[in-house]
Specification:
12 strands, 6-stranded mixed sheet, 4-stranded antiparallel sheet, 19 helices, Rossmann fold, 2 domains
Length: 581
């Protein structure tokens, strides 16, 4: 957790004021028992009412000043803690966004959510406690020991016995609780994962009537989390009766010892009262320290989980500025590209070479698992190539600044991804062209205008989280409109027409053609009808190019392509296709 202390640096002056406030509070609080002793010994015993009033007024002033110092300390600790968590959460989120897809895959989405919320909250709470209790407890404890020794040196052994008992029991509790903290955080990850999966896949669960199984799975994880949480809570609860026993035992011991002294010296009553209060301060200080030693390891586990993400060094490094001069004519070229996922024994793609030119459509087709989506994911550098190089506009993508490369690409994922908000904002996501004409034109080309105009609020209609209030085809069309609104040099469609009917698919491609006449178009598709008119079709099989050319050429020369065509048309249509090839 010490690594995260750097986030306190901007607030050092507030930390200084907090320390001064705690110091003032401690000093003033430690004066109160001594003043009480003076009231008893020199006021009550002697019957001096003026002394009692004067000293009582002094005690009141000290108490008010100590309260003011405590208020200032709490104000700054809350302020610093909130700022600390804000800055840490912002940096953590920025770090997650900077990681490549493969690096994010190393952490589950559920775990990253838990780390962003629960873990940072745990660290914030620990920081606030450290800024107050961890500073106040040693000051108060040492000051109270010194004052207690000054008041009654022959009874300080009772305080030592009480402190020893607190430390002994705290070590036992800490030893039992520590292993459970890591387990508890992992179980929270698991609960978040199951809940996220179930909510995302609710339709599938209901379609297969599998609610009971998923409820049982969640119930088991929930039971484990509850059992672990109860174990920790019971250990924490065990502290109260044990500490109560220690406090009462020490107080009883002090009173028992003092009775003999009071028989011979009545003025010792004030010292006894003061000593009891000092002993209470000492024991409370050590109690707070032991509580911190229990809470801090739990926060340290959370800090470790945060640092685990923060210390990841992105494998994909971007240039600060683009090195070299890209060609004015858009193009995408793969040169002997190979790719393997982290930890995989074999390449997913191997020896991939082709050129996609402006004004032309390059389509990719192949069986499931042939590497189509992986291939086009390499262009925006979602993953890094294992071998070979990729050129965009004649320049290696590794020589581009991130903003410079991404502004050239309009990407439409396989699953239409929408963000909560309104339709207009979703279409304009990623573009600076905020003109309403651009919005409507993009929607018209993407064949989304018809259903948008039927909505009551049209382009200001609300989109729910993940676009759950629109159909799959509508999500795809809005995702396509978002790419069109960007006016990119390179369009990447990752099987983005799969949810469209044949008629809409055809209309969309016809409307898209004039918009992409100066751009590179890369399409991954399963339907032959979608890519039939492409200037270049690349057939993939087990990560290798087994065919390259136009539709008719591939029908003649590529067995794999013929098999795909045959599986999608009738025998009569297939025979006609072969004849015309």
């Amino acid at each position: 957790m010490l690594k995260l202390f750097r986030y306190l640096k901007p607030y050092w002056w507030q930390v200084v004021l907090l320390i001064l406030s705690i110091g003032g509070q401690t000093y003033l609080t430690l004066q109160l028992p001594a003043l009480m002793a003076d009231i008893v010994n020199q006021g009550i015993v002697t019957g001096d009412q003026n002394y009692i009033l004067a000293t009582g007024l002094k005690m009141l002033i000290f108490a008010l000043a100590a309260s003011l110092c405590a208020l200032i300390a709490h104000f700054f600790s809350s302020r610093i803690g909130a700022a600390f968590s804000r800055d840490l959460r912002a940096d953590f989120y920025q770090k997650v966004l900077s990681l490549s897809v493969s690096e994010i895959d190393n952490f589950s989405t559920a775990s990253l959510i838990t780390r962003t919320t629960n873990d940072i909250g745990q660290v914030q709470q620990a920081i606030m406690m450290m800024l107050t209790m961890l500073l106040r407890a040693p000051m108060m404890g040492l000051g109270a020991i010194f004052q207690a020794y000054q008041t009654a040196p022959d009874m300080t052994w009772t305080i030592a016995a009480g402190v020893g008992a607190i430390i002994f029991f705290s070590i036992i509790i800490l030893g039992l609780a520590m292993p459970k903290f890591k387990i508890y955080q992992k179980l929270i990850d698991k609960i978040t994962l199951i809940a996220r999966e179930n909510l995302t896949g609710l339709r599938v669960i209901r379609a297969f009537n599998n609610e009971a199984h998923e409820q049982q799975k969640f119930g088991h994880a929930n039971h484990e989390l509850t059992k672990t949480g109860l174990f920790i809570d019971r250990l924490m609860a065990l502290q109260d009766p044990l500490l109560g026993l220690i406090f009462n035992g020490v107080t009883l011991g002090i009173v028992w010892i003092s009775i003999g002294r009071l028989e011979s010296d009545a003025s010792y009553l004030g010292d006894m009262i003061a000593f009891v209060q000092y002993a209470t301060h000492v024991l409370m200080s050590f109690l707070i320290l032991t509580m911190l030693f229990i809470i801090l390891p739990r926060a340290n586990v959370s800090a470790g989980r945060i640092n685990e993400v923060m210390k990841v060094k992105p494998k994909i490094h971007w240039k600060d500025t683009t090195e070299g001069n890209p060609d004015k004519t858009p193009s995408v070229e793969f040169k002997n590209v190979a790719f393997a996922y982290a930890g995989a024994e074999a390449n997913v793609l191997e020896n991939i070479s082709f050129i996609a030119k402006a004004g032309e459509t390059t389509a990719f087709i192949g069986s499931t698992g042939s590497g189509k989506s992986t291939l086009i994911s390499l262009v925006p550098r979602f993953y890094e190539t294992t071998e070979g190089e990729i050129l965009v506009d004649g320049l290696n993508i590794k020589d581009y600044a991130k903003d410079d490369l991404m502004k050239r690409i309009g990407y439409v994922p396989q699953r239409g991804i929408l963000f909560s908000g309104v339709i207009k904002n979703n279409i304009l996501f990623g573009t600076d062209d905020l003109d309403d004409k651009n919005v409507k034109k993009s929607a018209r080309v993407a064949q989304a205008e018809n259903f948008i105009e039927k909505l009551e609020e049209k382009y200001n209609a609300h989109i729910a989280e993940k676009g759950t209030n629109v159909s799959g085809g509508q999500k795809q069309r809005l995702s396509i409109a978002r790419a069109i609104a960007k006016h990119p040099e390179i369009y990447i469609f990752d099987d983005s027409f799969s949810a469209l009917d044949m008629k809409t698919d055809k209309k969309l491609r016809e409307a898209l053609k004039p918009e992409t006449k100066d751009s590179v178009v890369l399409i991954v598709a399963q339907r032959i009808s979608t890519i039939k008119d492409a200037e270049q079709i690349i057939v993939l099989d087990q990560g290798k190019i087994v065919g390259k050319g136009k539709h008719k050429e591939l029908l003649k020369n590529c067995k794999e392509y013929r098999e795909i065509v045959k599986s999608q048309v009738s025998e009569q249509e297939f025979a006609k296709e072969l004849k015309n090839a």
